[in-house]
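fold-stage: in
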Amino acid sequence: MEHYFTNNPDLKSEIREIPYTINNYSFKFLSDNGVFSKNKIDYASSFLVNVFLDNHNDLEEKKVLDVGCGYGFLGIIISKITKAYVEMIDVNKRALHLCERNIKLNNVNCITYLSDCYENVKNKYEYIITNPPIRAGKKVVNSILLDARNYLEENGELWFIIHKDQGAKSTKNYLEKYYNVDVVGKSKGFYCFRAKIC
């Protein structure tokens, strides 16, 4: 079985276009086989970005990092609507290629680059946002969430989403040793969290 957090250059390409509208903005996202949520926008990602935008609508001159960006849904929307400068990282090369195309397609101020978790990240950010790759395992997810502390500016915020059946409450309990964690939204079993360094 192919996973969206692995690379298989032999996987057949079947590009498709996914439209998405939010806050009177219209977007188009190119997707393909071998990437997360290839046929439609993932509900959790859509809910996460809606809650984030409800709390932050103007981030001009702010820096945002989208971890596990896939084909760029979260970062591109945040950049377009809030005017933030967004960097997007993923371990999946096909997703990153799509993300680069989607940045141009939607005319946003973003860059994207290959990084296994924060391996190639050099900056610090006011906001880090992620719909973490649950299927990659708890070790990877915890690394993304916990290590975000090293890449947040003072008073920065980590935003993430997890379903109650995939460990939302246990993850919150684990992170509360290191962050002040708030539930800022709930929908269809998904918990949207905001974490600030203690």
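fold-stage: in (second)
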Amino acid sequence: MPVTFELNGRSTTVDVSPETPLLWVLRDTLNLTGTKYGCGIAACGACTVHIDGEAARSCVYPISSVSAKRVTTIEGLSMDRSHPVQEAWIEAQAPQCGYCQSGQIMTAVAFLKKTPSPTPQQVDAAMSDNICRCGTAQRIRKAVLHASELMQAQGGAR
């Protein structure tokens, strides 16, 4: 049964099994490979996307549940890496291997929408469920705090 939803600002229809995880529809059906597979049980955060503006783990989210919803992936955050969180990530040189970074960025964007002026402790708590096996937590914290500053300077969350 076809499922229609908004993906990165465009209406999208897919005809896959309703139980298919959103992650696999994004990667295998729609060729949007920025969202990564990490664990398959919503424990690591590599597959984080936004569903109606909220961070969600796409590996356990069935495609049927996004019908008529807005889904944003890392590819839809900005076309040219101009989102303040992406800019801050680059400036802080946050990634090492980069595998978890799209999920980290998507988590940070959703967090900063709710908490525009976080403390370092709030950043650590918000990002703690996203696993970075390379150990770049300090650079990620620095990037999130800097993104907060950039977003404040630009007039708030995007």
